[in-house]
């Protein structure tokens, strides 16, 4: 029995969400390739420098918001339904949020296309961060708001399922997968409130001409209140996979259920009061306040370091179940030919490297060396672009048969794909990190500057540009392999062949009952999280609005 | 809740590591004086810079050992910087005041740790010292519109004697701003020279 046989409706919702995510990653990936080649001076005839920024905006929004949000919601629809053993409460609600959530990205994407297609009278070349007073068409902001509000609906569906389940199981611990999904959605409610306020109360009325000016520093701060916490909303679904499925892929079981709960709660508490570390170079925010958020940024390393230990230990446990021995030679016993495993393992490895770069970004003063240089995209292509995206691809290989009842096709292509992604990303982000250290800016269409010399350690821009071109090409080939496998599997005939994977998720070695029941008290943890946000953001926001909510203000400047 | 002994050891090491990272930054701030910007909280009407010191941007001496440079970042140039280089004296405290009349810009002096964001409505102010004469490139590293990639310039560090005294040093307006310069100075050590 696959998941699709037991819960056909929820399987359909999960499939639809994953389908939207795949469309986004396909278009976004193509744009990424074009952009890298343009930027590295390899091919500069696809579009104009101005259009480059539209492509960049689309790449950022499609990858970072659409792909991640839809995949997460699809994954959690499966995880919550499976672990609670019950479907969603009211299908009209489910269809409602799915419709809103899908309509949003379409509106935003069409607005961005206005720069590329002359008959679309919209514009939104404002990049992923859409800083005021650069202004996009109202449809861009409406689309983003719908995406966020729709995803809240998905969170409500998960909470509703949990509530129903608790009515029938009052004294049972929340199943781990549901726990992880709900903690992640609570974090999402909390952090996306910032961007919702920014868009609904400031940018949307301003782009419609209802209010004359917005305060650029305040809207920027609201963006980054959301903008770093959202990183954990992308990362936690990957952790969800690493905790609940990677031990199984390795051949074993997770070590400790309670530790996983503690890790997710630490993220819920600590991930929102850190956004000022994106504003270390900003005026108008005191160094002391920046320092406080730097400290919470560094402390959020703790749950990640704990995860590194537990996940590697669970992999070792699995390897030993498979006959692995020795201090390190157990690594050989792991199923490296299985893409669901290798993708997750390589993603974790890359995440370790990306994490070390993040420690540089988070340093109050060291940050100035690399702030807004191409080091930064180098960093988040390791974390989001690999730790998260590659994990999502890997789990798709295992999850898709459960959701469709169809056996995975092209297994060799699938087995190669994670390695291609790994090599491509190592090459590309190596170049980006090194250029960043030499001061090469991010977000520019120029490969070189006439008035500025960038002194690269070891070699010159020629070599790093070559790596950008080659790395991006490998990544694109890898993405194509992934999409071919998924599409061919999807087109296959249901029930024609045995699935070759089973949907069983093994229980942890040390179960939930080994930990205190207070871990499951989401009301308490959410209240503490809100309190921490008030402490971290109360003073900076109060300082910013002392002249008024819209002052010092700026009128829109068309992008 | 039972935590395995190895897990406890790992968590202890992790916490030590985190505290060590924070300590290294604290040492940088207190021991080496490398800080960041943001304490000045000086706001400005970005829709009308022509009624402020930024109407005529450039450098001026406010004391024998303190040079202030007002820079305007706008779509798509630095004033001064792009058409004429920003000139500053070596071995002198140099305070930058940077403002934008239009959108968010970056002000990055390539090869140094001068790298700030210029937000309309705010004056970004920070101080530094350049050890020796040199020429640096400046780039805008925040996307600011269709011509963003054209926004670049130069900063030239010259011997102190090469910069003539500013004529209006005694004007009231300047001496007022000197007061605020002193009170809200945010030193930003420059890590230039040496390894290059």
UniProtKB/TrEMBL annotation, chain A:
Domain annotation Cytochrome oxidase subunit I profile: ranges: 12-508
GO cellular component term, pick one: membrane
Transmembrane among keywords: yes
SUPFAM superfamilies noted in UniProt: Cytochrome c oxidase subunit I-like (SSF81442)
GO molecular function, one term: cytochrome-c oxidase activity
Protein name as catalogued: Cytochrome c oxidase subunit I
Gene Ontology biological process: aerobic respiration
Domain of life: Archaea
Keyword terms, alphabetized: Membrane, Transmembrane, Transmembrane helix
Taxonomic lineage of the native organism: Archaea, Methanobacteriati, Methanobacteriota, Stenosarchaea group, Halobacteria
Pfam family, one: COX1
Organism field: Halocalculus aciditolerans
Entry-linked PANTHER family: CYTOCHROME C OXIDASE SUBUNIT 1 (PTHR10422), CYTOCHROME C OXIDASE SUBUNIT I (PTHR10422:SF40)
Gene: coxA2
InterPro entries named in the record: Cyt_c_oxase-like_su1_dom, Cyt_c_oxase-like_su1_sf, Cyt_C_Oxase_1
From TrEMBL, chain B:
Family matches, as SUPFAM superfamilies: Cupredoxins
Record's protein name: Cytochrome c oxidase subunit II
UniProt cross-references to Gene3D superfamilies, sorted A to Z: Cupredoxins - blue copper proteins
GO cellular component, one term: membrane
Single GO MF descriptor: copper ion binding
Keyword Transmembrane helix included in the entry's annotation: yes
Entry's localization field: Cell envelope
Span list, region Disordered: 163-196
Alphabetical UniProt keywords: Copper, Membrane, Metal-binding, Transmembrane, Transmembrane helix
Pfam families: COX2
Segments passing through the bilayer: 9-30
Compositionally biased intervals (Low complexity): 166-180
Lineage: Archaea, Methanobacteriati, Methanobacteriota, Stenosarchaea group, Halobacteria
Predominant localisation class: other
Domain Cytochrome oxidase subunit II copper A binding residues, every copy: 64-172
Keyword Cell membrane annotated: no
């Amino acid at each position: 029995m696959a998941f699709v046989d037991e819960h056909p409706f929820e399987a359909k919702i999960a499939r639809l969400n994953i389908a939207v995510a795949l469309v986004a990653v396909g278009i976004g990936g193509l744009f990424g390739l074009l952009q890298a080649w343009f930027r590295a001076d390899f091919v500069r005839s696809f579009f104009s420098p101005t259009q480059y920024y539209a492509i960049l905006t689309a790449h950022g929004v499609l990858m970072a918001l659409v792909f991640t949000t839809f995949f997460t919601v699809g994954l959690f629809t499966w995880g919550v339904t499976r672990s609670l053993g019950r479907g969603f409460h009211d299908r009209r609600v489910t269809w409602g949020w799915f419709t809103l959530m899908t309509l949003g990205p379409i509106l935003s994407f069409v607005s961005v296309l206005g720069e590329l297609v002359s008959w679309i009278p919209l514009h939104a070349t404002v990049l992923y961060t859409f800083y005021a007073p650069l202004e996009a068409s109202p449809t861009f902001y409406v689309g983003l708001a719908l995406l966020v509000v729709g995803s809240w609906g998905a969170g409500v569906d998960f909470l509703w399922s949990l509530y129903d389940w608790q009515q029938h199981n009052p004294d049972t611990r929340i199943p781990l997968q549901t726990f992880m999904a709900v903690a992640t959605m609570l974090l999402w409610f909390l952090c996306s409130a910032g961007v919702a306020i920014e868009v609904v109360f400031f940018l949307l009325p301003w782009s419609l001409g209802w209010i004359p000016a917005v305060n650029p520093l305040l809207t920027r701060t609201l963006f980054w209140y959301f903008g770093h916490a959202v990183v954990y909303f992308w990362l936690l679904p990957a952790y969800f996979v690493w905790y609940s499925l990677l031990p199984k892929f390795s051949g074993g079981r997770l070590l400790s259920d309670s530790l996983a709960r503690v890790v997710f709660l630490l993220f819920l508490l600590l991930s929102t009061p850190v956004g000022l570390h994106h504003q270390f170079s900003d005026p108008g925010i005191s160094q002391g306040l920046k320092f406080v958020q730097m400290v919470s940024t560094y402390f959020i390393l703790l749950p990640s370091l704990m995860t590194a230990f537990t996940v590697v230990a669970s992999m070792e446990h699995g390897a030993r179940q498979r006959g692995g021995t020795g201090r390190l030679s157990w690594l050989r016993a792991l199923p490296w030919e299985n893409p669901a495993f290798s993708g997750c393992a390589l993603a974790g490895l890359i995440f370790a490297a990306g994490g070390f770069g993040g420690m540089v970004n988070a340093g109050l003063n060291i940050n100035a060396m690399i702030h807004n240089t191409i080091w930064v995209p180098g960093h988040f292509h390791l974390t989001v672009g690999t730790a998260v995206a590659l994990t999502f691809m890997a789990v798709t290989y295992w999850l898709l048969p459960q959701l469709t009842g169809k056996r995975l096709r092209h297994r060799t292509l699938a087995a190669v794909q994670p390695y291609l992604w790994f090599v491509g990303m190592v090459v590309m982000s190596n170049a980006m990190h090194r250029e960043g250290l030499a001061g090469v800016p991010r977000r520019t269409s120029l490969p070189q500057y006439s008035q500025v010399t960038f002194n690269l350690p070891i070699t010159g821009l020629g070599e790093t540009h070559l790596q950008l071109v080659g790395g991006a090409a490998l990544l694109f080939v890898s993405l194509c392999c992934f999409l071919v496998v998924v599409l061919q599997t999807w087109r296959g005939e249901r029930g024609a062949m045995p699935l070759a994977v089973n949907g069983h998720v093994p229980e942890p070695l040390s179960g939930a009952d080994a930990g205190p029941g207070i871990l499951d008290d989401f009301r308490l943890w959410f209240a503490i999280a809100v309190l921490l946000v008030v402490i971290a953001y109360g003073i900076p926001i109060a300082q910013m609005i002392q002249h008024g909510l819209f002052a010092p203000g700026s009128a829109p400047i068309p992008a | 809740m039972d935590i395995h002994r190895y897990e406890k050891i790992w968590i202890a090491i992790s916490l030590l590591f985190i505290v060590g990272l924070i300590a290294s930054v604290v040492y940088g701030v207190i021991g080496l004086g490398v800080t960041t910007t943001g304490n000045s909280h000086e706001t400005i009407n970005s829709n009308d810079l022509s009624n402020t010191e930024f109407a005529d941007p450039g450098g001026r001496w406010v004391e024998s050992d303190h040079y202030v440079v007002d820079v305007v970042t706008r779509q798509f140039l630095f004033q001064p910087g792009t058409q004429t280089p920003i000139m500053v004296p070596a071995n002198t405290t140099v305070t930058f005041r940077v403002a934008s009349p239009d959108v968010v810009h970056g002000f990055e002096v390539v090869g140094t740790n001068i790298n700030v964001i210029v937000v309309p409505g705010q004056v970004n102010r920070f101080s530094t010292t350049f050890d020796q004469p040199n020429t640096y490139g400046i780039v805008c590293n925040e996307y600011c519109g269709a011509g963003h990639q054209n926004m670049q310039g130069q900063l030239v560090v010259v011997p102190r004697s090469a910069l003539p005294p500013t004529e209006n040093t005694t004007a009231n307006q300047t001496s007022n701003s000197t007061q605020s310069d002193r009170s809200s100075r945010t030193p930003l050590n420059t890590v230039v020279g040496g390894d290059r």
